[in-house]
Description:
Layout: H1 3-17, E1 19-21, H2 22-29, H3 33-45, E2 49-52, E3 55-58, E4 72-77, H4 83-97, E5 101-106, H5 111-122, E6 128-131, H6 140-148, E7 154-157, E8 171-175, H7 177-190, E9 195-199, H8 204-220, E10 223-226, H9 238-254, E11 258-262, H10 264-276, E12 286-290, E13 303-306, H11 309-326, E14 336-339, E15 342-344
Parallel strand pairs: 4-5, 4-6, 6-7, 7-8, 8-14, 9-10, 9-11, 11-12, 12-13
Antiparallel strand pairs: 1-3, 2-3, 13-15
Helix pairs in contact: 2-3, 4-11, 7-8, 9-10
Amino acid sequence: MLVPERHELILRSLRRRGRLRVGELAAELGVSAITVRRDLAELDSAGLLRRVHGGAVGTSPAGVSQAGPQLTVGLVVPSSTFYYTDVIRGAEAMADRYGARLVLGVSGYDVQVEQKRIDKILALDVAGLLIATALGDERAAEVGRRLDDIDVPVVLMERAFGFPDVDHEYDHVRTDHAYGALLALRHLVSLGHRRIGISLDASATAHWLRQGVARAADTLGVDLFVSPVVLPARGEDAHSIAQLDAFLAECEAYGARAVVVHSDEHAARLVERAMERGLRVPDDLAVIAYNDETAALAVVPLTAVCPPKFQLGETACELLLRRLRAGSDRRGVTQHLSLLPELRVRESCGAVLADRI
Length: 357
């Protein structure tokens, strides 16, 4: 269990019981008493509870008043699975800390469904809205008018729409995916790779990954190619295998023995096909995946770039709730926040190619 998950469970238990005991928490969470005491110390330092002898008692987050009616905020996301599962959980954890209620709407990456979900949530008289739209930043103009029509505070998640696509700037919290691409490529270069293939899934994230790839080509001085081949995430049919083989053939023709693949499922299927063709991973082909949802479960555990999904939901929700608690008279400056992903190194990119530089 990750530390943020454990902290969330501790705070939920505290709200339910009013007081926590170290021994009971350790048994409930399946960790040592030392770990629980460390967690309580961290939460105490953050002002989310108060440590007492043998456990902890509740307190309000610094600067947050719990008086008055419960705030209800809307949360609209393209999906409730994979990437957005942790985003939702992060927003939920922060809403719980503020004593607020979340109302969830899922669009299924359908723009028309998304508008219906927004309309239904707004009809509930929510105080504010968190939105990760179905459309990516390269299609901002299509979203602009709908945002400007919303009459409650809005915080965008994983999107960064601004002038001239919308009439005014919105608060947003997003992952710096361009940095994530640079992070992956920098690691491969450190292993000696000078020619690297790139496969991008058809998603909103690809817009920013392309920017990171372009930046890396300039700053790292390496040869990169973004393949037009659409990799399958799964499948043993002839078309899927042909696509995988086509990408591997491109890499061979280009002299690339390293690839960055978005996303985990596509990278895992590529590794399987490469091994079926007699290639060794990472010796013959080094692979870095992007998203780190299932990367560790691949046949060869995949090195992966991991966006801070849980923290993104937390940060966006806290930004909105602080706005709402402060009131319209003290809205403050608009904030554009970028969170950096991290690289989790596993077995799929360990080849050192000093002899090929």
